[in-house]
Design a protein that fits this description.
The protein has helices at residues 3-6, 13-33, 39-46, 52-80, 82-102, 106-120, 122-134, 140-169, 172-176, 178-192, 206-225, 235-255, 271-302, 306-312, 314-334, 338-355, 364-392, 398-428, 435-446, 449-462. With 471 residues, it is mainly α. The chain folds into 3 domains: 1-201, Growth Hormone, Chain: A, CATH 1.20.1250; 206-257; 263-471, Growth Hormone, Chain: A.
Length: 471
């Protein structure tokens, strides 16, 4: 990697820039989960308790907006620079957070969450790109391991933080706390982040961005509504499915003709990318299902409150963070990713297999060991997959490759939550509702993580041995 990319920020600026980027990343992931625990209070305050489907869009609108815009930000930052685009996105996120806190109706809050999500789309993608440019290639694994830890902390800690803030100060402060943190991120990155532009002087592929955003939103709506709000054979779901296929086909056609494509077709000619992208989507789905439904199991099986359930997930979070950091350092030193990725996918298979055997009599100590196993597997996989894709990309394609991987993971995560939710609804269908029924059904749902993780093992076996070491 060139000196221009490894030392654009000198002296003490690289640590400060890193801190600013990680704060932005923390905020983007945190706001996916922090709101869920406060939804009943929000509904009661804004008068939406009679229509919880509408209230659910407070979460869904944010996820749709951030997932749909994520792929675009890499190309925009190629054209205008990482720092101005990241700072602008943070400002959009902060303004959206303020508007969320000031909302007086459910419709206003959904609109503000959508605006906030547009800013959030950059806050995981751009730090992942910028950190790979701030540090030399042999340190990428270690630095990206930190981002994996941030993801785990924010994903699982979000409900805990949301519950504590809502109980102490009220739900509006869930959004207001973003303001000082966001401004700190702006100040740090505006001062310390110094990266050269990547030479993307052509037009931003707006047409491609609109097509892929439309396909992403349509796919997420199919997963969100199918079998619940609408029957799978309904006109709405079938129409959305047809629209998704058509938009994807149009996107592929357009990208082959665009002067400066959002996702250059050559990315998919690379054998490493052809493995990493589907593997990352599958990993996201498994992450989403576990992060959402493990707290539900803790509350249903052990009678824990939201705060207690959040704390009970510490073995998962701490193992995820520790393994992500340590594995990143070891992999960065050796340059050998494939053994760690194979081991991680095998450990994920084991983790889901153990969780599928849970019963109502399982002691929490046993569950703690099992979720620690799952956290270790995810820690070996998550950011190492990103680094593999980055190392296989040319400098000109670094932003596009990173955007694709991170966006695909976000899409997979959202789809995983929806699919696991559908499986849970089928398990409890026709049975009297109650905590015991839910607790008994969730291990059966988690069982489906086993065959999905076995596919992940197969994909890791297909990863080229030398695809991780390309200069």
């Amino acid at each position: 990697m060139s000196t221009a990319l490894t030392s654009p920020a000198t002296g003490g600026r690289v640590p400060l820039a890193t801190a600013g980027l990680l704060i932005g990343m923390l905020l983007s992931v945190l706001d996916q989960t922090v709101v869920a625990v406060a939804l009943p209070g929000i509904a009661a305050d804004l008068g939406g308790s009679g229509n919880m489907d509408a209230v659910g869009w407070i979460v869904t609108s944010y996820v749709l907006a951030s997932t749909a815009t994520g792929a675009l930000y890499g190309r925009i930052s190629d054209r205008f620079g990482r720092r101005p685009v990241f700072v602008t996105a943070i400002v959009v996120f902060v303004v959206g957070s303020a508007l969320c806190g000031l909302a007086q109706t459910t419709a206003q809050l959904i609109a503000a969450r959508t605006f906030q999500g547009v800013g959030a789309g950059a806050l995981f993608v751009l730090p992942t790109i910028a950190l790979s440019e701030l540090y030399p290639k042999h340190l990428r694994g270690r630095v990206q391991g930190l981002t994996g830890g941030v993801f785990a902390l924010a994903s699982v800690g979000g409900p805990l933080a949301g519950g504590l803030i809502a109980d102490t100060w009220g739900w509006r402060w869930i959004f207001y706390v973003n303001l000082p943190l966001g401004l700190v991120a702006v100040a740090l990155t505006a001062f310390a982040l110094r990266l050269p532009r990547s030479g993307g002087d052509g037009r931003v592929d707006v047409t491609g961005a609109v097509l892929i955003a439309g396909a992403t939103v349509g796919l997420l709506l199919v997963a969100e509504w199918g079998g619940r709000a609408y029957a799978w054979t309904s006109g709405v779901i079938l129409g959305l499915a047809v629209a998704v296929v058509a938009l994807v086909a149009l996107f592929v056609w357009w990208e082959r003709r665009a002067a400066n494509p959002l996702l250059p077709p050559r990315l998919f000619a690379d054998p490493t990318s052809r493995v990493v992208l589907p593997a990352t989507a599958l990993l996201g789905a498994l992450l989403g299902g576990s992060v959402v439904y493990l707290p539900t199991y803790l509350r249903a099986a052990y009678g824990m409150g939201a705060t207690q359930a959040g704390l009970a997930l510490n073995p998962y979070v701490l193992t995820f963070m520790a393994v992500s950091s340590l594995a990143g350092a070891r992999v960065g030193a050796s340059g050998r990713f494939k053994p760690y990725l194979l081991a991680g996918s095998a450990v994920v298979v084991l983790g889901f297999a153990l969780l599928s055997l849970l019963t109502l009599d399982t002691p929490y100590a046993v569950l703690a060991v099992e979720i620690a196993v799952l956290g270790a597997g995810f820690g070996l996989l998550m950011q190492n997959l990103v680094v593999v894709a980055q190392n296989a990309a040319s400098p000109a394609d670094l932003a596009a490759t990173t955007s694709a991987v991170v966006s695909v993971r976000g899409l997979g995560l959202s789809l995983g939550v929806a699919v696991f939710g559908i499986l849970l609804a089928r398990q409890v269908q026709g049975r009297a509702p109650g905590p015991g029924v839910t607790a008994a059904a969730i291990p059966d749902v988690l069982f489906w993580g086993v065959p999905a993780a076995l596919v992940l093992v197969a994909l890791m076996a297909l990863l080229p041995a030398d695809g991780t070491a390309q200069s």
